[in-house]
Amino acid sequence: MDTMGTLRRTHYCGEPAESDIGHEIVVCGFTQKIRDMGNLVFIDLRDRSGIIQLAFDDGTAAALLEKAKTVRSEYVLMAKGTVRRRESVNKELKTGMVELYVTELRILSKAQTPPFEITDQSKVNEELRLKYRYLDLRRPGLQQNLILRHKIAKVARDYYFENGFLEIETPMMIKSTPEGARDYLVPSRIHNGKFYALPQSPQIYKQLLMISGYDRYFQIARCFRDEDLRADRQPEFTQIDLEMSFVDMEDILKINEGFVQRLFKEVLDVNIPLPLPRLTYKEAMERYGSDKPDTRFGMEITDLSAIVKDTEFTVFKNAVAEGGSVRAIAAKGGAAKLSRKEIDKLTEQVKGIGAKGLAYIRWVEDAPNCSFAKFISEQELADILKALGCEKGDVALIVADKNRVVLPVLGQLRLTVAKLLEIERTGYNFLWITEFPFFEWDEESGTWAAMHHPFTMPMDECLPYLESDPGSVRAKAYDLVLNGIELSSGSIRITDFELQQKMFTLLGLTKEEIEVKFGFLVDAYRYAAPPHGGAGIGLDRLAMQMCGAESLRDVLAFPKVQNCSELMSACPSEVDEKQLAELGISLIKK
Amino acid sequence: MDTMGTLRRTHYCGEPAESDIGHEIVVCGFTQKIRDMGNLVFIDLRDRSGIIQLAFDDGTAAALLEKAKTVRSEYVLMAKGTVRRRESVNKELKTGMVELYVTELRILSKAQTPPFEITDQSKVNEELRLKYRYLDLRRPGLQQNLILRHKIAKVARDYYFENGFLEIETPMMIKSTPEGARDYLVPSRIHNGKFYALPQSPQIYKQLLMISGYDRYFQIARCFRDEDLRADRQPEFTQIDLEMSFVDMEDILKINEGFVQRLFKEVLDVNIPLPLPRLTYKEAMERYGSDKPDTRFGMEITDLSAIVKDTEFTVFKNAVAEGGSVRAIAAKGGAAKLSRKEIDKLTEQVKGIGAKGLAYIRWVEDAPNCSFAKFISEQELADILKALGCEKGDVALIVADKNRVVLPVLGQLRLTVAKLLEIERTGYNFLWITEFPFFEWDEESGTWAAMHHPFTMPMDECLPYLESDPGSVRAKAYDLVLNGIELSSGSIRITDFELQQKMFTLLGLTKEEIEVKFGFLVDAYRYAAPPHGGAGIGLDRLAMQMCGAESLRDVLAFPKVQNCSELMSACPSEVDEKQLAELGISLIKK
User: Which residues of A touch B166 (CB under 8 A)?
Assistant: First the structure.
């Protein structure tokens, strides 16, 4: 094999253009493909920037032509030559107008035949691709995703630093707390029987940094959650994490909106108009049945309670009478695709998520076919159709129950129906959700729990009702939603030691529990804290949205699969008994 | 307590200048101190940028003056007022020409009396300060260190990104390997009995990224090593990590030198001339007895072997005859401080690190006092003094042994003596160390071990001697040294699969061991790899040097102490039996 010697790259493969014609350049990269046509040889040479065609022809020295013929897929080459106009322009390539007429070729490394072809079109199964991740990572699509991810992080730092944020590293081996999701633990060798935890987020530390006067904190932080298996989650994920002092909610929304606008302009050249739309939690639930609605399409929820409250149909009447409601979505033009059979499937689906059933009106023929026709009057049916704006060709799907069932069920149904009807969803619909309830009633334990986290500041106007009407207390918490995905979550924190104690009491925590769960953080607030708040923005999800990727695995260099293992290195793995003994632990025999 | 309402900061405390006189501004921050002189009140308000004096006087509304009098140390305030010239200029403060004549004061948060005064002069013990780290972090000195650290990371990203590097995140939960230092382990809940490891560095992943064609990789990466206790080490530390393709050693040194120059100029306004000086490993050892010499002072090692090889003094003669050497350092003007007693202490010290003894010549009186006078001739003594350039007032310290004892012992001695003599060491002396030996003979196992790591490329001219003379093989490895501290370490990697196998064989590894230790990484090289190499730069040490800090704890927000515990949160800590059971582990009862 050859060495580079003193030869050095002058251009990336994707760079040569018509303006380079006649110039001598040096490129290097991986062999995408080779076409040997006897006295003509073409090699497509690939690097992270693109592909250039290397050309050898009857003018090429015989030894060089012979050498070119020995090249195989994925060989690493360095080539010097002159840029010339291509005979047949390749419009698929950035460099398609030109080619490199090679005068010197160095084969720097030879490759075995790879287990699969390295193209974005390769249909090989993902498991094999993950096992050979280092080869899959050669795919231009994946490379562009990771380059885009790099740009996101760069714009984030540029933007927040320009706005006075300091990047401060917080520890990765921290104290385990019984709060929140499950911690990953790290046994201590020096302190046998004790453990560190990997951070679920830098939450505690960024609040402390505000107490310490750092004013504006930023970090792109790795976070860890040992959660039960769910589709498209990674045990470690990355958060653009920030916190700022001497601000209220509006200040934080404004600075983060500015980031969104700058990011999309710089990276995708997409204009995001500001201010971003907002919905309160209540509005979002009532209109979309979700606190992270996809607003790229309508199909909003309509409340039919007023129309049906006195109907003979007891399912509807009772739901309203018992404080619940009857609500519906209208699938415009959905009658053809939403056959009876399809609606039966939807019924099963909604039953699976807590509904008792699904009523419907399907209007295919001249008259609407209504699943509860015999129980309601013609006038009521007409009123329902009118309220929903339903016409021939449409389907109405109706749920009656308590609100906490009706709304999320219709929210889910809305997404399922949009998918079934293939409703076009394009663009980037950002949305702030504000005024989250502070408390969430936990049926199981019969106590109030904090919906965001217990350090979240209640809204000023709710402070008088903390004890008298906890259910009505809204928080200075805000989520940023993009196309139905929760991108960011944040809040203003409680900085008043006394108020914090009161909130803990309302959450049913004893002094001991407060001490165990939040000990030093709560104490820190005794020494004064500026008003502060912050947010965490999910970098992986953001990258996924901006890349148009289908999975988090497509925006991470070395992802784990659903059971949290990593296929390339076969991790996690067994370790020596000796190592465990040093850590003071042993395996439980099953 | 007050709220901010709609009032917002217009200036940081360190900003108001004479040009602001007459302007109305708003500042906020922490109360450094309050001086109540009856009808005059002054408050020093502090934020991360500096301190501004808030002034209240007989023109101040009575209620406002009374309010100002209630302020205590560390209260968080927001103040609106007019900038005016100070009566008595404070030259200690950036803002010392002006003060803020307050018209509106908001007390945003009250503080308990802190357990220690928050100033850089505070002499309270470090343990207490670490327990209340959130208060200690309010100290301006510590704040400036973390701001400087932020700047280092920012310049690093700016520089390397401008040079085409991509920041790519590598996983933190990886496969444990038996190579290198001890891994921190993370038990798996889903795969009981198996473990992840926290990365000691992203080494494997960055090499894979080169194989995958990412061309130039950069990351500021957290690394973890469960090492035995040593002074000033942290179990987690941060590395500026990079790797680049289609380069040889010179290219990497050049790009990293460029970073050093840019960094010191931008952050400290210090000019570092390029190219940086270089020494080969051999030169560094022979001249300074160290592969990370502090070159801010001379006191180089002199080889006396030629002079003493035929002396009657058998200690010297035999050392030379047995292939070792007799070498010395000269402590110019050291005779006064290096008393006999002091030299005895030095003798004990060198015995502690492997020397058999320490010979000396101490020249205080008219004639030199030589510890081995009776064994050598006058001529020999004169020759020794001449070789060392010793005169009256100087001390020569001489060690005779094998070279691998003589050199490091004198290297250590040189540093100790420099400290004793309080030799001035200022400035920033950078130095590349190159041509490290590839192999290191491991006496214990009687095998060759890799000095850097087994993926390091031997120098081209050494390839013919791999088998015949392993001891002479030098590697394309390079360390960057600053003032005697190893800042960075790196190498060109072996990209030839066959050569890699040969090196493994020379290192005595069996096929099985290769598979267990390096399995998928070695396999990856079968599919071709561009020539590549890289380096890791210790961010913590770099920050420590640039801050002039005495300890890593002064450049980290939340450091751990020597036994790897963190005093603020009392971490590591015990966890629930239930958690352990889920992980399939139990504690070994002692």
Answer: 48, 146-147, 150
Distance CA A283, CA A293 (A): 11
Report d(CA A187, CA B226) in Å as an integer. Answer: 11
Q: Is A432 exposed, middle or buried (0-12, 13-18, 19+ CB in 10 A)?
A: buried
Q: Determine if residue A539 is labeled as part of a ligand binding site.
A: yes
CA distance A276 to A543: 19
A227 labeled binding residue = yes
Q: What is the pLDDT of residues B217-265, one digit of tens each?
A: 999 999 999 987 677 789 999 999 999 999 999 999 999 999 999 999 9
| A206 contacts A170 by C-beta, under 8 angstroms | yes
Two tokens, residue A277: 């739309």
Identify which of A317, A519, A313, A283 has the alpha carbon closest to the alpha carbon of residue A407. Answer: A283
Contact check, Cβ <8 Å, B214/A48: yes
Residue B572: which of A157, A191, A574 has the nearest Cβ?
A191
Taking CB atoms and an 8 Å limit, are A173 and B571 in contact across chains?
Answer: yes
Q: What is the pTM of this model?
A: 0.96
Closest residue in B to A229 (Cα–Cα)? B190
The beta-carbon neighbor of A195 closest among B1, B75, B575 is B575
In percent, how much of chain A has pLDDT > 90? Answer: 87
Calpha distance B235→B562 (Å, rounded): 9
* pLDDT for B72: 97
B539 assigned binding-site residue: yes
Q: Which residues of B touch A112 (CB under 8 A)?
A: 526-527
Phi/psi at A567 (nearest 5 deg)? -80, -30
Contact assignment for A174 to B569 by CB distance below 8 Å: yes
Q: How far is B557 from chain A (nearest CA, A)?
A: 7
Residues of A in contact with B46 (CB under 8 A): 213
Distance from CA of A479 to the nearest CA of B (A): 23
Residue of A nearest to B250 (CA): A6
- Residues B477 and B473: their CA atoms lie apart, in Å, by 12
CA-closest candidate to residue B488, choices B437, B435, B548, B541 = B541
CB contact (8 A) between residue A150 and residue B168: yes
Q: Encoding tokens for residue A171? A: 């520890």
The pair of three-digit structure tokens given for residue A97, joined into one six-digit string? 């107008």
* Closest to B142 measured CA to CA, from A484, A519, A212: A212
* Pairwise CA distance, residues A280 & A37, whole Å: 66
pLDDT tens digits along A118-152: 988 878 899 999 999 999 999 999 999 999 999 99
Contact check, Cβ <8 Å, B572/A29 = no
Domains of chain B and any CATH numbers? 18-109 (2.40.50.140), 143-279+431-555 (3.30.930.10), 297-424 (3.30.1360.30)
Radius of gyration of chain A, Cα coordinates, nearest whole angstrom: 30
Q: Do B111 and A581 touch (CB under 8 A)?
A: no
Residue B222 carries which side chain, given as an amino acid letter?
A: R
**Chain A nearest C-alpha distance from B195 (Å):** 5
Contacts of B465 (CB under 8 A, 6+ apart): B472, B473
Task: Pick the closest to residue A252 from A62, A537, A444 (CA basis).
Answer: A537
DSSP annotation string for B113-155? PPSS--STT----HHHHHHTHHHHTTSHHHHHHHHHHHHHHHH
Its ipTM equals 0.95
